[in-house]
Amino acid sequence: MAIKRLFVANRGEIAVRVLRTAKALGIETVIGVSAADKDSMGAHMADRAVVLGPAPSTKSYLDVNLVVHAAVATGCDALHPGYGFLSEKPELARLCEQEGIVFVGPRPDSIEILGDKISSRELAAEANVQTVPGTDHIRTVEEAKQAAEKLGYPVVMKATAGGGGRGMFKAVSPEELEASFERASREAESAFGDNRLYMERFVERARHVEVQIVGDGEGNVVHFGERDCTVQRRYQKLIEEAPATAVPDDVRKRLHESAVRLTSTAKYRNAGTVEFLYDVDRNDFYFIEVNSRIQVEHPVTEEITGRDLIACQLRVAGGEGIGITQDEVEVRGHAIECRINAEDAQRDFAPSPGRITKWNPPQGEGIRLDSHAGQGYLVPPFYDSMIGKLIVYGKDRNEAIDKLIAAINAFELEGIKTTMPLAAFIVDHPDFRNNQITTRWAEDKCLPDFDKKMGS
Fold it and tell me: What predicted TM-score, i.e. pTM, was given to this entire model?
């Protein structure tokens, strides 16, 4: 491995995940943590931990100069950004380049092109990958109303600079556009520093399907199959699975080809995810965006392919190429992941920070837990509420569903509220078991059913 000493610029489970692979590859590790995380699992796992600053992420994990300075000062020759925080900030990749540090991610210009929804749609067109019918930048409510009349309601407004549902809303009438436009613009400005919005036609019965790829930056791209992330609340994924068994084989093949063609056109470097909406009624799909980083849900792909995607990232960043050909990627069985968030689903997903007084996770064949938490761990109020991911593998989807329910029921966790009871309810719901869901299903059907069952 060409990388000798890796700086991990993140926290939580993804920091632990990156450290685990780096250590397995014999790479020395340094982690930058906030004062709130100085006794975290990641800090103990790394060969060295340095405190970047106080708990607020703006003064630690989100300070580009501070992070790169720490990497330089500790003699690291590479930096892994994980996901979230600075992972898709071209400023970080650029400063790493200037300081002679290998950025385990795409080139800065690739992040800029793919991070902007309008320029990424232009790239898709260049690669002959179809997008949802939509617009360029929309500046005013009046422009939005005129565009919606041409596209036809319902429509969805999105922030050009980001994802995760921020700056995003669905409108079925001019009144709804007027009511939400300014709020979404302010939300986009606050989240991404860019208030620009654009519009797409809303696909009524859609499934969210994404293709995992790894590119070497020279135009060579290998895909690792697709994931189905249709179960979402407020555009945030709750359950992820692989493969996407609801998608017909011929469509799946075209999805893979489109993802590879698009990222090859971009000469993309790093692991990445090409996201699509699968239109159930039309049996067709549209490109949404590229996430130019490792994603939260990458473990389900690792489980069905047997490949370590973090190792692929480090290999590419170290100049050793992807290290695997397309013919060598085999998909077997089925995997499902549920995110374990420290939230109370019965109280509108209110955060539930605090100390974990009991932590006895399930074990056994086909059960995997990616987490930085444990008994006695204090879930801080400063960061994302996710404390882990429970992943199961089965020979088929039904076996994986049953295994996930059994694993959740066996998980002894006390001291805080988590979303695991909701996850068990979701995968045991008849609609999920029958694979008859859309991106609206969780909010329109499943969550009301859950509230009814729990008496909320």
Answer: 0.93
